[in-house]
Amino acid sequence: MAGPLGCFAVWRRMAYFGDTLAHSALTGVALGLILAVNINLAVTVFCLLLALLLVLLQHNRSIATDTLLGILSHSMLALGLVTVSVFGDGRIDLYGYLFGDLLAATTDDLVTIAITAGIVLPLLIWLWRPLLSITVHEELALVEGIRVAWVRTTLMLMMALLIAVAMKVVGVLLITALLIIPAAASRRLVQTPEQMAILASLIAMGAIVGGLAISFFWDTPAGPSAVLCTSVCFCLSMLKKPAI
Amino acid sequence: MSELLIKATDLCLEFGDRRVLDRVSIQMHRGEIVTLIGPNGAGKTSLVRIALGLQHPSSGELWRRTALKIGYMPQKLHIEPSLPLSVRRFLQLAQQDPTDIEESLQLTGISHLLNSPMARLSGGETQRVLLARALLRAPDLLVLDEPVQGVDVAGQAKLYQLITDIRNHKGCGVLMVSHDLHLVMAATDTVVCLNQHVCCHGHPESVSEDPAYLELFGQAAHSGVAVYTHHHDHDHDIHGEMEHRGSCENQQHA
User: What pLDDT digit, counting tens, does each position of B176-232 carry?
Assistant: First the structure.
């Protein structure tokens, strides 16, 4: 799931967008605590709302998008850290949220991930062509009758869902890495957008397995280990000359 | 004249308090080539965007024939180098049918590029691929925003010839934006000289002799030379614009 979405994040230069959502997820955690609702639910809803807000804000171009995201991203991270420490009373494993706690994943988490994948993957396949179209040239897509705003919003929402779910696995600070690096690593090895999406997925999955193995044998944190695996893949891919 | 495709009446467009278009009226018929010319910032691209439905006018009326199919060739195409996309895949975004794609590539003379990556195309090649994509929609109206940008002079003449051939072959209307008067002239039916408002319009020969046109382009050249009095020049420009608007109206009354 991270593979194809990561590709769009790279193609559309949305890395900062992913970061913002991820950092804000921590505020979602805090909100969940304050309101005493299910934390996963709180994070998901919060990420979705924020994605919608960002879509709206991007229409209003009074501030450059990257500046806006930079402000939001780090304010949200700080807000999350502060509120979690005030309201958490030590009940919350802050380290786990920041860097991921892959090994603490429960059956519930697995079910959540499965449901998310069940929503996002079919949507991605269904919207693949329009998504590519708006990535290549939004106005051209609009003239050709694609509902650009709708497709773009859906992409953002899918990204938000993914991030809310993946936070459990790799943590707030490293989610973007798991989106961007596998996509970047597969770039030189492929010739079509579809190949890139599939290879990025494979690299991401391989890296998670690798990260778990490293964590098992050397007792390192699993999330960061997985991210390091993707980085190694990326470096290796740089050795190959680009096909296209 | 043949079937009417687009009719715009008294279009105005304002961004904040800056008026980009001022009561612009324009018509397009099937099989007609209309070229928009005018200095930078004259509102050429804004007018095209309104015709395409990408921008709403502040006031005025735009009528488009129902189910009008438009093939749009944007001014620039930027594809992230991180996106592995061949010309074939790029064209498939508009039309899946392989024989249509082949025909369109043949018409634009770039059959050999079918499997090339988009990121490696030269300026002229990219323009032709964009044109091929616009044609794939089997358009009633082709809209071309500075189609010869980034193309050398020899290539420009060829590209204009190609656009003329396409018009003759497909019978579609062509709305084109251009900086260059002379090269377009050969094929164009109507030239519209735009500088916020329509300065003058008509057949190529009549426009190039029109005092409003001469003043507009003569003035632009003049301010380019007098660089050291830039601020003064700017004042003069605004003033001058109002002057030649007067002369334009006089011309229409005459």
Answer: 888 766 666 567 778 888 877 787 777 766 666 677 766 666 654 443 332 222 222
Per the CB < 8 Å rule, is B74 touching A196? no
By CB atoms closer than 10 A (0-12, 13-18, 19+), residue A97 is: buried
Rounded CA gap, A79 and A26, in Å? 8
CB A5 within 8 A of CB A179: yes
| Contact assignment for B83 to A136 by CB distance below 8 Å | yes
Q: Which residues of A touch B76 (CB under 8 A)?
A: none
CATH architecture of residue range(s) A2-172: Orthogonal Bundle (1.10)
Beta bridge partners of B197: B195
Greatest Cα pair distance in chain B: 59
Which residue type does A133 have?
A: S
Residue B187 contacts residue B34 (beta carbons within 8 Å): no
Tokens of A166: 């993946």
Per-residue pLDDT tens for B126-164? 888 888 888 888 888 888 888 877 777 777 778 888 888
Cα separation, B168 vs B189, in Å, equals 13
pTM of structure: 0.74
The tokens for A223 are 């999330």
CB pair distance less than 8 Å for A187 and B94: no
pLDDT band at residue B252 under the 50/70/90 scheme: very low
pLDDT in tens, A131-159: 888 777 877 878 777 787 788 888 888 88
Q: Where are the domains of chain A?
A: 2-172
